[in-house]
Design a protein that fits this description.
Elements lengths: L1 E5 L3 H12 L3 E6 L13 H11 L3 E4 L6 H8 L6 E3 L8 H10 L3 E4 L5 H17 L6 E8 L9 H13 L5 E3 L11 E8 L6 E7 L4 E7 L4 H20 L5 E3 L1 H4 L1
Parallel strand pairs: 1-2, 1-3, 3-4, 4-5, 5-11, 6-8, 7-8
Antiparallel strand pairs: 6-9, 9-10
The protein binds nicotinamide-adenine-dinucleotide.
């Protein structure tokens, strides 16, 4: 498959290596500053024009929360299957979903492309469901990432928080700031640490007066994230060709 990479930073380079190992061809890399990118551009119109010219059959976008929404808006009219990895744009999700349908195209987005993290989502959901039968248990989330990460808390932590709230009805709101007063029982605290080069750790605590249950997912290498994103593009492209599912925005739970 001919693939265009929008954003040629850490993930972009990893995606090239994983995609090529799987026999795909990278026909374009676009990035405003990366010296080894094929095209140095930052305007979304220029990026979309370069993608169109490249003859790409699929696009993978890993850039920055401040530019991703405009990139998506300009890429959708090309009607090429689009996988978005950039996080930090949750508040635009409904608007983008509508644009995907309006443009009659296929898009995939996930806060975390690792298969392990997606298994962790299911484990946490089940744990929250079980724990919610016992009033004694409280819950909190903590995540740590490298200092280059732009958004905080991570998209993955917000996804885990949403799964906890779906399965633990006592938790109704997420608090990401520090507490300056005693937390109320319906608040779910999600805290973040930024340190060094940590690739990503997410921890869920279920705590009672008698014990604590801790569930942890630790990323060892970012290769798993890149592999998940390439698999997502393969799945999306096949879905588009077979017309098995209608145009729309898909995610990991649809693929797995
Ligand atoms: N969903 C996931 O599984 C997952 C995994 C890892 C990273 N991420 C997210 O992906 C994003 C990128 O991560 P990274 O580690 O590659 O970051 P990075 O900083 O190493 O690379 C981002 C690249 O995007 C480029 N860029 C900035 N503006 C651009 C624009 N307008 N058009 C094209 N490129 C542009 C930057 O110059 C940089 O080279 C972040 O938001 C990160 O949180 C998501």
């Amino acid at each position: 498959m001919k693939i265009a990479l929008v954003g040629y930073g850490q993930m972009g380079h990893m995606l090239r290596s994983v995609a090529e190992k799987k026999g795909h061809e990278i026909v374009l890399t676009v990035d405003p500053i990366a010296k080894d990118a094929d095209v140095n551009a930052s305007s979304p119109e220029e990026i979309a024009a370069a993608v169109k010219k490249s003859g790409a059959e699929g696009v993978i976008e890993f850039t920055h929360p401040s530019v991703v929404v405009n990139n998506i808006k300009n890429l959708l009219p090309l009607q090429i299957p689009l996988v978005v990895g950039t996080t930090g744009w949750n508040e635009h999700k409904d608007e983008i979903r509508q644009l995907v349908e309006k443009n009659q195209t296929y898009m995939f987005q996930a806060a975390n492309y690792s298969i392990g993290v997606n298994l962790f989502y299911r484990i946490v959901s089940e744990a929250a469901r079980l724990v919610s039968s016992y009033d004694d248990y409280d819950c909190a989330l903590w995540e740590a990432h490298h200092t280059k990460k732009a958004d905080s808390p991570s998209g993955t932590a917000l996804e885990i928080a949403s799964l906890v709230m779906q399965n633990m009805p006592s938790k109704k709101t997420i608090v990401t700031d520090a507490f300056h007063q005693r937390p109320s029982p319906e608040q779910l605290h999600v805290s973040s640490t930024r340190i060094g080069s940590v690739p990503g750790t997410h921890k869920v605590y279920f705590d009672s007066p008698f014990d604590t249950i801790e569930l942890t997912h630790t990323v060892r290498s970012r290769e798993g994230l890149a592999l998940g994103a390439v698999c997502a593009l393969e799945w999306l492209s096949k879905t588009e060709k077979d017309k098995k599912l209608p145009c729309g925005m898909y995610t990991m739970s649809d693929m797995l």
